[in-house]
């Protein structure tokens, strides 16, 4: 190897190591170091990590320690672990807003939807009470009270508590398969998530509220409402069988609280709207406590869902079986 090339490589390595090993002499102060390593900050960081790992592998045990390195015999492995930790922490941060098409935009949109889902409900096991009050054709319908048991957004039990005449009519959801169990029928009946349960509330509105798992999201832009900025997303069903084919979803930028949603048919026709109207302490954090759903063609037909008594509980897998549902009262 020519001597001038060897000298440039030595100078480059010394410049990269000088911030990490204060005991090394700074050759860069005496010689100008130039080259491709300065093209981007990302490449420089990568080269530095590789260089340090290489020196650690080739140096005797304890040499990195003497130069200010971590107190471990396998310094190279420690550096890899530290870099991995840094990357994991960065992944937990919100991704930059990128409206439009492309991998960056899709990743950011999915991140927003996932964070909004976490505001609405816990990601692990929980139970919550939901009271539904509906008005149809100007007349109030009999209120309904349900207890929901959910585990990981894939398994859900919807237990009917009121009215008393419907007590014992319970629904079981596993994945996207939904059954209803009725005391007067020996076998469970298969239902669709989009089928109406009561008022403007569909089965899927109670049994499956997992937007991140059901839809492919696109960040289409942002809007300002009453001085507050919101993300605007378009959600398209990832596969058949979800509650709504399309959703226009607005989420507050500052804390990922859901603001409203427009539920659309496959052709884009507006079916109904949903507005998260009130937030309060629910379980371990502030969550939506009141949700209003309005028929698009009959704006006077509305259903209001009140959430209360949310608790994180451990729910055994055996609960989400047909045998257990037959015994549930």
Description of the structure:
By secondary structure, this protein is α+β, with helices and mostly antiparallel strands. The chain has two domains: 3-91, no CATH class; 110-327, Lipoprotein localisation LolA/LolB/LppX (outer membrane lipoprotein receptor (LolB), chain A), CATH 2.50.20. The protein has eight helices and 16 strands. The strands form two sheets. Strands 1, 2, 3, 4, 5, 6, 7, 10, 11, 12, 13, 14, 15 and 16 form a 14-stranded antiparallel β-sheet that branches. Strands 8-9 form a two-stranded antiparallel ribbon. The radius of gyration is 28 Å and the shape is globular.
How are the SSEs placed, and which strands pair?
Blueprint: H1 3-17, H2 41-58, H3 63-66, H4 75-91, H5 103-120, E1 126-136, E2 139-140, E3 144-151, E4 155-162, E5 170-174, E6 177-181, E7 189-191, E8 196-198, E9 201-202, H6 203-207, H7 211-214, E10 215-225, E11 228-237, E12 246-252, E13 258-264, E14 270-282, E15 285-295, E16 302-311, H8 322-327
Helix pairs in contact: 2-4
Sum up the structure in keywords:
about 325 residues; alpha+beta; outer membrane lipoprotein receptor (LolB), chain A; two-stranded antiparallel sheet; globular
Provide a quick synopsis of the model.
About 25% of the residues lie in helices and about 35% in strands. By secondary structure, the chain is α+β, with helices and mostly antiparallel strands. The strands form two sheets. Strands 1, 2, 3, 4, 5, 6, 7, 10, 11, 12, 13, 14, 15 and 16 form a 14-stranded antiparallel beta sheet that branches.
